[in-house]
Amino acid sequence: MKFFYLAFLFCFSPILQANATTPKSVTCTRTEYREEYIPGTKSNPGYVKSYEVDVEIPCGGEKVEKNDECTDGKIAGALIGGGVGGAISRKEGRWWAVPLGAVTGAAIGCQVDGG
Q1: What is the DSSP string of 30-66?
Q2: Using one digit for the tens of pLDDT, what is the confidence trace for 18-65?
């Protein structure tokens, strides 16, 4: 019976991870004015060359916060993983099976949540 639970957990975890999508980054452009000093000599004086460059920036302003929080998935995965670890272990093995199941479940839950 324990083997069935472990097989079920590990067989479906890659499928859950494959369905998790990563957010696509959207970029916009901004035109920047730049100047470059071209040095010269005594007979041929230097000058300033000015030009404009299109620079890619994240849309929505200068600073974009990356929201990689997967708190909900971690909590749900840890609870489910700890429960499965406790259900499939014997009394003397629960001291390591429950925490291991919780950590594994939190990692899988974070991936499913998109983090």
Answers
A1: EEEEEEEEE---SSS--EEEEEEEEEEEETTSS----
A2: 555 555 667 789 999 999 999 999 999 999 999 999 999 888 754 545
* 50 is a domain residue: yes
Domain assignment of residue 61, yes or no = yes
Q: How many other β-carbons are positioned within 10 Å of the β-carbon of residue 92?
A: 8
In a domain, 21, yes or no: no
Domain holding 46, by residue range, is 2-12+28-113
CB neighbour list of residue 108: distance below 8 Å, 6 or more residues apart:
13, 16, 17, 77, 81
Pair of tokens at residue 29: 């452009």
Q: How many domains does the chain have?
A: 1
Phi and psi angles of residue 56, each rounded to the nearest 5 degrees, phi first: -80, 130
Give me 3's structure tokens. 């083997």
